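Hi R.,

As promised, here are both runs. First protein below:
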Amino acid sequence: MSKAKKIVSKKENTNTYEDRVGIVYARVSSKRQETEGSGLESQEGRCISDLKHISVPYEKTFPDSVTGGGDFMQRPAMKNLLEYVDSHPHKKFVVVFDDLKRFARDTEFHFKLRTAFRARDIIPKCLNYNFDDSPEGVFTETIFAAQGQLEREQNKRQVVQKMKARLEAGYWAFAGKKGYTRGDSAYGKLFKPNEEGKILALAMEGFANRTFLRLIDVCRFLVEKGFWKKQSPEKYIDKLKHIFLDPFYCGDIEYPAWDVKRTKGQHEGIISPETYERIQKLLKKGDSARRIRKNISPDFPLRGLLVCDHCGFHLNAAWTNKIHPYYVCHTKDCARYGKSIRRKDIEGKFLELLQKNTLKPEIGVLVDVVFERVWIEEVNILKLSEATKIHKHKELEERALQLSDAIFNAKSPQVKSIYEKQLEDIAIKIESITTISIANTDLAIPYRTALDKAVKLLKSPYTIWFSLDVVEQHRLFYFIFEEKLSYNQESGYRTDKIPCAVRLFEEFVTSNTQDVEMGEIESPCRRFS
């Protein structure tokens, strides 16, 4: 009876694998696992031996270094394996792997992969598990697949809990910050300011005390000092904003993604909390109010906007005997020290300057055409950037799951520590990527509103000037002129050196109409007629 059973069993095995060729699928999270006896080579060797045992000729190995749950089609070797099978429709295959966890660590994709195998008539064979398509076998397989997913997700949760606890204790648990070096301490790795941190501290203090008026000025300083090296200053504005908003640099820890509220960190800040708060207030005010004085008066709307052409310092303003208004230079070393300028003269010449700096009528015809084209280009860039961020965010999340799986499978504390460090780096990268969708946003609204307002201001700044209060007059001034105006008591305003937005606007529009066909220009003309 015993012999009969063996004969039947042998016959079934022969029928099951007859005329098939063997493929090995091996998967690890890192090359380091080869030294622990669970690497690609050891998996391949065991699987090839199993194929030899069942008398199936070995044909090819597909090694993967991507682990974890998620879509099996995201694993390059598995994708190549299926493509290889599809390219050999006249062959029948057996795919061997050494452990059920190598197959998939996600219940949903486990059975999707099983379906993909079944559709291609592939027989899966596992060294430590016997596949069985009976109802009981499918139930057991579901339990094992779900257990693998549970273990992976539990391990991820444990890692997050440990990292969150460290954050709440005041220790930064992720990748290093620009300007800091990770060093050893009695409580583990602790971040300490380095030479770059000293340069960054100067930049942040300079912005807080208004030595640097704009973010671009800070970026230029940091590039000149070698803090950033690879790109032009304009490319670093977003990175600078991210640094300015980060309380880490004033010695605090905060991580909203895990509900870790701002707390005192164990590391040394490069700026004081007071400096950090001043920076936040300046960022909230925006660039439009960056140089508006607090003591401006309707009596002297140009106070704080003019500098003496002879010495470069501000012109002050006051009343003489509460009767005669005047502007004056109070710089003692200046050749024009104490010599007053009648308000009527200096403000009258400024109004004449406003009248001259208006948009030419013929330019208005081209504005819509050029800016519509530029705006479409910007929107396309924005959409491409959003798609890139979404794709990168998805890749990082998948990699985080893979690392969680690798941590669970690691057999030595040293290797596990390496994976945890990699997971920390991935987490900080995920945090830095914003994936707010613009799909349901009408981008034309802010564009059209801003363009209409800008064109109106440029067309008639002189008329609008009289309808504004003194604060709004200062904002209009900085919209028209990039810098404070230099006034010479002998020759008046140095118009040849005035960086005017109107002139720049006209040059931009005319230079960008070279590629605009006449047909595109005629349509706006008809609209304005």
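And here is the second one, sequence first, then its structure tokens:
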Amino acid sequence: MKNSLLFALFFSLFCGFSQAQITSVGLIGSAAPFGWDADTNMVQDMDSSHLWTLSVTLTDGAVKFRADDSWDVNWGAADFPFGTGTQDGPDIPVFAGDYNIEFNSNTGAYYIEIVSPIGLIGAGAPFGWDRDVNMAPDTAGTPNPNLFFVTLDLTNDNVKFRQDDDWVINWGGSDWPTGIGTQDGPDITVPKGGNYYITLDTSSGEYNFVENVSFTTVGIIGDATAGGWDTPTEMIQDAGDGNVWKLSTSLGDGGLQFSGNNGEIVWGSSDFPTGTAEVGGDTIPIPAGRWQIELNTKSGAFSFVEIAIYETVGIVGDATPLVSWDIDVDMVRSTNDSSQWTLQIEMSDGEAKFRANDNWDVNWGGSDFPSGTATQGAFVNIPITAGEYLVSFNSLSGVYDFKELILFDTIGIVGTATPNASWDLDHYMDNDPGDPNLWSIASFAVTDHNGMDDGGLKFRANSGWDNNWGAVDWPSGMGTQDGPNIVTVAGTYGVTFNSATGEYAFGDPLTSTKDLLKPSQIAAYPNPASEVLNIDFAEVQVSGTLTFNVYDMRGQLLVTQELPAAPTVKMDISSLPIGNYTLQIRGENMMVGKRFTIIKK
């Protein structure tokens, strides 16, 4: 039997469930026929009561296994198409297709095998030369009936492709990682074990093995970069897609390559400004300028978009407080991204546009509200509905958003790390009488996150989840709607939170919560920095001695400096290595946090 082979491989892992307790095993989930409402029961093997099988059609989504139509005993894992489920494990991701599923309720081992005529077999594959691992047919976009794919862990050994679990039709080749497979060709040698995305085109025999590497860092190296060929200039991982990395930076004439995990993998290409980078590829030719760089580590797709640097970007139109198409209301440039601009503004019914440098040479318009993508030079104005807004605009992409500011009755801190140790009971913050968006607590006890799925805390409004803020940063950061739980470190803190921007900070207990300064009034530059970080207090009143604390992304305190207040304070950061950091500033009437990045020239 096919399934006896699979489960022999995983028999060493035992979940500890007595078979006397289990009378049925079913498949349940968003991808299953009955969703999360009811199980699709599996068939118990007549000879081995712990083995279960099912032939079923699934949709894009996730599934789990469970016993006796109850969540008391259930199995899940993050692996596909096979893995070992554990009690209360994560949902198993699947994509649409017809499947033959095998499950072992003794060990939790499963194989969600797609029905397909094409498979991969060999000593380097999961089942050796005894059994094929089926490859999925291409169904994305315009389907290619000859293209098949699978993602697998391979060992340093040989593999081949074949049809219908038989050697009558098979493909082999001597090239790696890409080649043309031929009938009865040589075994394909996998030179390095790892997780691979594998494709085969049966019409041409073309095959491709792309290693899926988990990257902790991705950067650029080369004589066009600040760090040369020896020190990567780090890129920033996209919050929505872990395969995408971005960077805005100045480059000189020369060339560069992408570097993953400090040189473990290097990509290159001869194309510019867009192309597909290949492992070990050429040096990308770069003209001098300031560029927005993006790389997808899974596909290799990259792009360089030149960034125009504007002295100012403003909002102009009859919907602004100035009721004028001649005078701009200037926006505030982000310290992290020179193309990102924000402004808190009260607007009336009417129209508006964005423009650069207080003239019409460069302007952006759009037809959508409250959000959209503006087009440079468009002969269309943005229709505005009266209200108070936090406006964001990206002068590179044209993306804009008018987020209406809502005044909340209460802001609370909730979570297992709070004194209430509950996600239902809020610890309420004090509202600043001079700013309805600024909230604080003078002294607040926090417990450790402890790595729990439900650990940490969040901010929320009016004791409900319609408006809540979370983030990955500690002790300061920018919370976003439905963001992740804030990972905490035990201690007693003063806390500030801005409900208009989501900015928060945990620091030393406050002596007063009156007249706290807004974080947006303080700028930190240049960003990225190298030796010195300038902190600009030109828009605020500061006096006395200020405390500057620098934390890494795990919340560990690395540097503490006390410096006298001044319009611009220069902070020495030359001792810090390349990386991303949080700067927390403490003073008589402030506690704010700022993100910054360090590169080395």
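A quick note on the second one: The CA atoms of residues 144 and 249 lie 39 Å apart. Let me know what you think.

Best,
J.
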